[in-house]
Design a protein that fits this description.
single chain; alpha/beta; Rossmann fold; Glucose Oxidase, domain 1; 2 domains; eight-stranded mixed β-sheet; six-stranded mixed β-sheet; 10 helices; globular
């Protein structure tokens, strides 16, 4: 696992494009998110199809081609400094192969922010563009709109990333120890679902894997972790950081599943690092070298996420 190119940080007045590569976006939540971004002295622009809904498949924010076109147009617009995903849901897998990676590479580095279903794009941006991306809250997400901590941590990561080089939540160690590597990961279900596709990481070797999920039953978490193990995808991973597991059952029942499936890897595993679907979610970068200290519950970046 190698370090990736860090995009430039944002400055006051920066233009940010809001896109919806996955699920449909409620207009009132979009407007609330835009107000927050304007309060940061950003200039948010909304992609043409963000408020669309697929006529038959109502869980999609419009047609695959339209969602892909919005993302590509935003990324290739020289006036846009960052692309923020409005929400997760489902749909990124359906549109990611429609993107013109040569054109997007030629557009140069900029910031991508999103989480959950956007895991698919995080992997593709790493493998095709070689860019650091931010696994952070959705611009129209209810957890972002209602959480001052989620807002402030994302804002600091975007504008003053040197102030959030250590992500510390005081979590516990599922497996004690420290490890160094390059960060990667995302939502467990999407990592498992993306396994073996052309734009996904071929494995976590040399990396610090940061994973979380939402609304999964215990046996499904077991199955997805087992799939990653059996495929060899986890071979050579240096350490694992666990984020939130909202609505995945009582954590006292989930914890033995995580210990059973991850403990045998022989690497440090830190719990409760505060990123993902939970309340007050923190932003974590993918593609940067860092140290994971499971005993202290910290992830410390060698360099700021953005330059």
């Amino acid at each position: 696992m190698k370090e990736l190119l860090r995009p430039p940080r944002l400055a006051p007045g920066a233009r940010v494009a809001v896109v919806a590569p996955s699920g449909p976006v409620p207009e009132e939540r979009l407007q609330a998110g835009l107000d927050i971004l304007r309060g940061w002295d950003l200039d948010p622009v909304v992609a043409p199809h963000v408020l669309h809904r697929h006529g038959v498949l109502g869980y999609l924010a419009g047609a695959d081609a339209d969602r892909a076109a919005d993302l590509q147009q935003a990324w290739c617009d020289p006036a846009v400094d960052a692309v923020l995903c409005a929400r997760g849901g489902y749909g990124a897998q359906r549109m990611v192969d429609l993107l013109d990676w040569d054109a997007m590479r030629a557009a140069g580095p900029k910031v991508l922010v999103g989480f959950s279903d956007v895991t698919v794009l995080h992997q593709a941006f790493a493998t095709r563009l070689g860019l650091v991306t931010l696994y952070g809250p959705a611009a129209a997400g209810v957890d972002f709109i209602k959480s001052a901590r989620a807002q402030e941590h994302l804002k600091a990561t975007l504008f003053t990333p040197e102030t959030v080089r250590t992500i510390a939540t005081g979590g516990t160690a599922l497996v004690p120890g420290r490890a160094r590597g390059v960060t990667l990961g995302g939502c467990l279900a999407l990592l498992a679902g993306d396994l073996g596709t052309p734009l996904a990481h071929t494995g976590a070797r040399g990396g610090l894997l940061l994973i979380e999920d939402v609304g999964e039953q215990l046996y499904r978490v077991d199955r997805m972790l087992t799939q990653l193990r059996r495929s060899g995808w986890l071979d050579g991973v240096r350490g694992i950081g666990l984020g939130s597991w909202a609505r995945c059952g009582p954590y006292e029942l989930l914890r033995p599943v995580l210990a059973d499936r991850l403990g045998a890897l022989g690497v440090p595993v830190a719990e409760e690092l505060g990123f993902g679907h939970g309340d007050d979610a923190l932003t974590v970068p993918f593609g940067v070298r860092a140290e994971l200290d499971a005993d202290k519950g910290t992830l410390t970046l060698d360099e700021p996420a953005l330059r």
